[in-house]
Amino acid sequence: DTTATLTIETSLPFTAHNCEPPSRSVTTSPSELLSFFRTMALMRRMEIAADSLYKAKLIRGFCHLYDGQEAVAVGMEAGTTKKDCIITAYRDHCTFLGRGGTLLEIYAELMGRRDGCSKGKGGSMHFYKKDSGFYGGHGIVGAQVPLGCGLAFGQKYLKDESVTFALYGDGAANQGQLFEALNIAALWDLPAILVCENNHYGMGTAEWRAAKSPAYYKRGDYVPGLKVDGMDVLAVKQACKFAKEHALKNGPLILEMDTYRYHGHSMSDPGSTYRTRDEISGVRQERDPIERVRKLLLSHDIATEKELKDTEKEVRKEVDEAIAKAKDSPMPDPSDLFSNVYVKGYGVEAFGVDRKEVRVTLP
Amino acid sequence: KQMTVRDALNSALDEEMSADSKVFLMGEEVGEYQGAYKITKGLLEKYGPERVLDTPITEAGFTGIGVGAAYYGLKPVVEFMTFNFSMQAIDHIINSAAKSNYMSAGQISVPIVFRGPNGAAAGVGAQHSHCYASWYGSCPGLKVLAPYSAEDARGLLKAAIRDPDPVVFLENELLYGESFPVSAEVLDSSFCLPIGKAKIEREGKDVTITAFSKMVGFALKAAEILEKEGISAEVINLRSIRPLDRPTINASVRKTNRLVTVEEGFPQHGVGAEICTSVIEESFGYLDAPVERIAGADVPMPYAANLERLAVPHVEDIVRAAKRACHRSVPLAAAA
């Protein structure tokens, strides 16, 4: 029975600050574990393929990959609904996929094509899916945290009984505006959950070189916090459920997800100058979020090695097909240069590079 | 009937809050203190603390929260005690508000108003006397409005709140207490002015003077003086810095053949520079004299009264520039 209830202990205890931690026993089911495995494997494959596309010069500019951190995006979806909002920084491909975005929308956006989720106008860092509560995709480090508290303000104002998860890295955790927004969120009891995805390096700066106190779950002082093993999808799910309940009742909370990125910060960073290869391979061997779920599936006789290998083959095929489709997607129409500057342009003239050559009327 | 700019702004906020429950106010001292300049007086009592929110003195935080609330579909009106402090939050105004609709191909619209006093006040020194019209005016995705009269204040603020895009609304502290005549139409709760349209405050045929905010009053006074000397000046109240009403400006210059631009801000890369460019691009052949520019002096605002006076435009500066423009109609060779 794939829907039978399973109770699994998190591999590490939660560490709480100013609150009682949730139970380590997480309720799940065989079908949920299978879907965790599949989605995380898909994300992993998707990012690795994006790496190749970048190297083939089909993706331009900045590209920040999420492989290693998949359990955070997937566990968070399991602990929330699409009425809850999520907002994140520039490492946003997998968060978008988790919210229901499609592979085609992702690859087409990465390649600057018309079928992209932002019609090719946003790029890697600017994915959005408002209809399922995903508000981007932000390129300015830390800015998404006040914005997320603003989403939570909207949820409270409209009495929607939903919450916002605002994700940021350990680099952004030292931004002043984060503390400004957290102060207001606490003053106004906003249902905002600040999720620090601590991958231990802000670009190439190790956390201890940037933070006097790298205990990010405690950095809210008067705001409760919880440190979570961010490589354990079940722990993430449990923490997000707990956080949602807490935030609706008591206002903001910080979740620190202890996670790891396998890739460098972005495509220009080999990711091996400020950390050792041993460190990376150690995490892969001991803490990898996908391998952890694979072991659970095998030890509970939910799937066989072969079935899981087949799943990985399937997602690989899915990714390849999406890339092929995205490559066929046309470039944006030149007229799209001037669309969406405003919702209401009042028929005002706007100009191209040579205004005698290109002038348009904004709709 | 007369109305102060302060009452015009206050009544506009009141009416738009009453018309749409998604409109709310936030900022420093907007609630219990009744507004640092009393623009939000009485609104906390009327609409309650859910819709009139006193914030800490942390502009980056509360502006980001305002923008996030707008993403969610609310219509925040964010007050900056003065626009100088918006520098603490300019990232959210530009990167989070102005660009989101474009970056998301229309998914994330940002119906928000950033308002407060802008430009030089009196005797407050460099960090509290700075016009940001050209800064915000240069950024696509923003709309930038600058009211002069009570009619402007009411009509433009109501338009800004109803608008689906982010609007920077630049008021002037020294105008808050000034009274202007208002018609029954202006006082009607349905009153609203179009965004992107300038107003010809005074018709004339010899020289066009463009101005916004407090400088419109100075330009009108200059026009009166010029009239006594036989020069008929047309005064354009820009009202909207972005979109800029290029057609109205150019039509006027094609009629008068001369242009003086007036602003309190710094001259370099200013609003006047953009207007001058537009006229040279569109109406070069109609100009009978070089464009004249009156602007704040190219220095941070000094404190001492005599120096401060030298740093901001006065009526006589506008008069002088207008005359210069008019006298240039005499061929240079003949004048020599």
What's the topology here?
The complex is a heterodimer of chains A (363) and B (336).
Chain A: E1 6-9, E2 15-17, E3 25-28, H1 30-55, H2 70-78, E4 85-88, H3 93-98, H4 103-110, E5 134-137, H5 144-157, E6 164-169, H6 176-187, E7 192-198, E8 201-202, E9 205-206, H7 207-210, E10 225-229, H8 233-250, E11 253-258, H9 277-287, H10 289-299, H11 305-328, E12 349-351, E13 359-361
Parallel strand pairs in A: 4-5, 4-6, 6-7, 7-11, 10-11
Antiparallel strand pairs in A: 1-3, 2-10, 8-9, 12-13
Helix pairs in contact in A: 1-2, 1-10, 1-11, 2-8, 4-11, 5-6
Chain B: E1 2-4, H1 5-19, E2 23-27, H2 43-47, E3 52-54, H3 59-71, E4 75-79, H4 90-98, H5 100-103, E5 113-117, H6 133-137, E6 143-145, H7 150-162, E7 167-171, E8 179-181, H8 184-187, E9 199-202, E10 207-211, H9 214-228, E11 233-237, E12 240-242, H10 246-256, E13 259-262, H11 271-283, E14 292-294, H12 305-311, H13 315-327, H14 332-335
Parallel strand pairs in B: 2-3, 2-4, 4-5, 5-7, 6-7, 10-11, 10-13, 13-14
Antiparallel strand pairs in B: 1-8, 6-12, 9-11
Helix pairs in contact in B: 1-7, 3-4, 9-13, 10-11
